[in-house]
Specification:
The chain has 299 residues and is mainly α. It is built from 15 helices and no strands.
């Protein structure tokens, strides 16, 4: 009896410690996001003087006004949307066409193809050979260079292949063959409708990757009209290019006030660039448990 009581007390203490630790971790994760939102809505001078805040100080939307009046940000936003939509569509098509054959038992040689796919996860040509290939294909500084070199992810192919293996019965495929369906009809009419959870998860994975990508644009693009939003964001946050956004009205102001306005613009740009993902992610999260757990790397 005493042992049971001691064990129960120990369990309660462990639960308390776990809850406290998780609370601290959640606060550490949420605080940067909350602070950026608060800073973007506050008077830049107040944030500059008192940076550690959890609520807005003197609501001020001038930073957002400066961001929305900047043509480069609008152009970059449109480019990012196009790269994300077209690139994600290509990703899903290529991943599905690669994963479905590798998941079928009657596909001879699938082990060899799987080996070559997985081999590229550990060994690649590197940046310079990739650049030379894109240059020889005349893809540099074009729309296609942002979507074709990243057309497929082997990791996601393995996830989708495993989902097909564990959730699409072979008997269903065989009965469809008996009814006269070919492989493309089976994939389009049977397999994909039953695989919406994993498709939704991969849509989010690929979409986030395209939206946050800036390195490919930095390497392969030269025309400013082709720059995605993340490259414009890099110029603002890293290179401190604020001349067009601060405006002539701040020329005669004090240096500290100009620096404060620049900080406010930084926070507003971060919110504008992150908002699409913050909206889409909760809508797709309900598919995560079913899609990822069932499509995990096993077998």
């Amino acid at each position: 009896m005493l042992e049971n009581v001691k064990r129960t007390c120990t369990d309660k203490w462990l639960d308390f410690i776990n809850a406290a630790a998780l609370t601290v971790v959640i606060l550490l994760i949420l605080y940067p996001l909350v602070f950026v939102v608060v800073a973007s809505l506050s008077d830049p001078v107040a944030i500059y003087n008192d940076p550690l805040r959890l609520w807005p100080a003197k609501i001020n939307l001038e930073s957002y006004k400066a961001v929305f009046e900047n043509k480069d940000i609008w152009r970059g936003f449109g480019n990012s949307v196009m790269y994300t939509v077209v690139g994600t569509l290509i990703n899903i098509v290529m991943t599905t066409l690669a994963a479905y054959p590798l998941s079928r038992r009657r596909f001879y040689g699938k082990s060899v193809f799987t080996f070559f796919f997985v081999f590229t996860m550990f060994f690649s040509g590197g940046l310079i050979p990739s650049y030379l290939i894109n240059k020889q294909l005349h893809l540099l500084d074009t729309f296609l260079v942002m979507v074709l070199p990243m057309a497929i992810s082997v990791y996601n192919v393995v996830i989708m292949r495993t989902y097909f293996q564990t959730n699409i019965p072979q008997e269903l495929e065989e009965s469809a063959h008996v009814d006269g369906c070919n492989d493309f009809q089976i994939l389009y009419k049977i397999v994909l409708p039953l695989s919406m959870p994993i498709v939704a998860v991969l849509l989010l994975f690929y979409g986030v990757g395209h939206w946050n990508s800036y390195f490919h644009a930095l390497v392969y693009l030269q025309s400013r009209d082709q720059f995605p939003l993340q490259l414009i964001l890099r110029e603002i946050l890293v290179q401190n290019q604020f001349k067009d956004m601060v405006g002539a009205t701040m020329v005669d102001e004090k240096f500290s006030e100009r620096m404060a306005v620049m900080e406010g613009i930084k926070y507003a740009v971060v919110i504008v660039s992150s908002l699409p993902l913050l909206v889409i992610y909760p809508m797709m999260s309900k598919f995560f448990q079913k899609g990822i757990l069932i499509g995990s790397l096993k077998g």
